[in-house]
Design a protein that fits this description.
Blueprint: H1 2-6, H2 20-32, H3 41-56, H4 58-68, H5 72-76, H6 80-94, H7 100-114, H8 117-135, H9 148-158, H10 163-173, H11 175-185, E1 193-194, H12 203-212, E2 226-227, E3 243-246, H13 253-261, E4 267-272, H14 275-287, E5 294-298, E6 312-318, H15 333-336, H16 341-357, E7 360-370, H17 379-388, E8 392-394, E9 412-414, H18 416-419, E10 424-431
Parallel strand pairs: 3-4, 3-6, 4-5, 6-7
Antiparallel strand pairs: 1-2, 7-10, 8-10, 9-10
Helix pairs in contact: 3-6, 4-6, 6-7, 6-8, 7-8, 9-10, 10-11
GO molecular function: RNA binding; RNA methyltransferase activity
Organism: Erythranthe guttata (Yellow monkey flower)
Protein name: SAM-dependent MTase RsmB/NOP-type domain-containing protein
Length: about 425
Amino acid sequence: MRIELGGAFADLLNEQGKGSGDNEMGYVERTIGFRTRKLDDRDLRLVTEIVGGTTRWRRYLDHLILSLCHDESTFRNMEPLLLQILRIGFYEIVKLEMPAYAVVDENVKLAKAALRLGAGNMVNALLRKLVVLKESNSLPVPKVGGDNRQQARALAIIHSHPVWMVRRWISYIGYEEAIKLMTWNNTDPCFSIRANIGKGFTRADLVTELETLKVPYELSEHLDDFVRIRTGMQIVDPKPGESIIDCCAAPGGKTLFMASCLNGQGSICAIDINKGRLRILEETAKKHEVDHIVTTLNADLCALVNDDDMKADKVLLDAPCSGLGVLSKRAYLRWNRRSEDMEQLTNLQDALLDSASTLVKPGGVLVYSTCSIDPQENEERIAAFLLRHQEYRVDSVDKYVSSSFVTVGGFYSSNPVKHSLDGAFAARLLRSS
Ligand SMILES: C[S@@+](CC[C@H](N)C(=O)[O-])C[C@H]1O[C@@H](n2cnc3c(N)ncnc32)[C@H](O)[C@@H]1O
């Protein structure tokens, strides 16, 4: 409920070290009114899986719940907490295939304790109906047919995405690829770790460490220092002695990667409009002992146009974007985005690109990146930028990444369906004068 109504993040439940698990359980206690026992690691993982899963599968679960209600108004007028309990129960039975008797028992108890006896009876009735349908293999599935809009509506339910996203993808990448992309978005996300070679910690060391901790891992096929990582940031190609500006830097993943490449020589100015996120970057830079080469600036990039004291050899603009390439990791994001956001975002991306371009020294490099797979935020932004700025030209990324990530236009593009990696984009631009 905190994700849906209060904008909380599903993945914070995992960060037991920072006490977020405790925070969330504190919230349960304050709002629902009963104390939960302290969760061990296994329980926390299950809670995280259930929160992530019910968030991702919300549209599909609601379709099932609605189909089993007496009438539409029962569903539409359902109180939020009761609906949430039903989503959890439905998800546990349909997607996690947990034993039906335990799911019914637990969720009925939950509804009675958190709401009232009648709510427990309703959960009991709907979950039992669901179990019967599931056991007879007759769960209601919308039929994919009719015109484009009707097809998109059915697919949006089956794969649990907003209709506007489904329509957009069908028009950009076609029906089959759109389904593959949604399937990827619904899989468990895969996180990656970088070996800090700047501090003499190699990938072999990292692998030994992970094996000792019994953490399952996969070596990145494309980068030597990473264990499953989103590629792309090596396109800046930072070299010792260079000055770099990281324009939208917080919380700092890319700043730290670049800092480790500088071997203590050179400088990075990390700019971000968000003070809190920039503070995280400062703390991490200290922890990684690169704070002597990383300085921070809390500012709106758009206000830094043509600042003569601030010019760098290389400028990275990792722009705010829709995040449409990372929907598997950010379970809640698909429901927060609206198609109208795209225009606002692309206007901001244009403005940030214009400002960032003034911070590059003549002969320097500007890298624009997003974690989106949407052409409107990627290729189209660069095409529009090049029309406004004839002093820039594209430098193909083929010297920096393996050819399977290089587009015909010379840009970097990773795609969940093609590479089994997060979707991302980057363009490397050279400034002539
Ligand atoms: C995609 S995130 C950057 C992630 C970061 N590069 C990393 O690797 O951790 C985009 C960042 O842009 C920042 N931002 C948005 N508008 C900005 C502006 N006008 N000026 C400076 N930063 C801005 C946001 O606060 C956010 O931290």
